[in-house]
Design a protein that fits this description.
CATH class of the largest domain: Mainly Alpha
Strand content: under 5%
Structural class: mainly alpha
Radius of gyration: 18 Å
Oligomer: single chain
Order of helices and strands: HHHEEHHHHHHHH
Length: about 230
Amino acid sequence: MKKINKVRMHEMVSEELKQYIRNNDLKKGDKLPSAETIMKILGVGRSSLREALRYLEASDVIEVVNGKGIYVKETAQYQMSAKINVEDERSALLQLMDVRRALEVLAVELAAQRSTDENIEEMRHYLLEIERTRGQASSIADMKFHQAIYKATGNPILQSIVESVWELFSVFWNAPFGHQEIFQDSFPFHQTLFAAIVEKNPMKAREEFNKIMDSMEQSIKNFQFHVT
């Protein structure tokens, strides 16, 4: 028997929307059906759709333009994710951890060297948002905090590489194993990582980022499935 994961309504809605983009071969700039149409087709409420759109927008999959509609923002990640099919979720997460370490260690070192006052304030904003919120809102703030670090590198090529695999990375912020709180123990290291970036200390930033990764990796390895 396979494990049974808890799936939240907004997660199911977001997956349906991504599947719609794939099935209809939508490209960047293409328009999705209206919110009212999506709610009617999927049989979901406005709050569930709003959370799904918020998550997809944070993942750079769509862009919601007030008064105009919902548009596809990026599709390259679908081509990448379609080629990767790892059945075991734990193995997939650990493999993705290796990729994140490779890319994000470089990112935090560059961010510590190159971040502007504007970059620092953006990171500070999302770090405070993580502290203030819980659940999906917190996970989105966490995701945006890491995206702000990549932005602070000032390296558009590195940002482009990350964007091409961001759909794969987003699994870390979308309830791995069906549990949103699995990586809560890593939050204190986000604070010390931010402090190292503010201090312009690349070596310290690297150390604190690796503490985040070590904590997350341990959480993945230790997680126990409970089927009821």
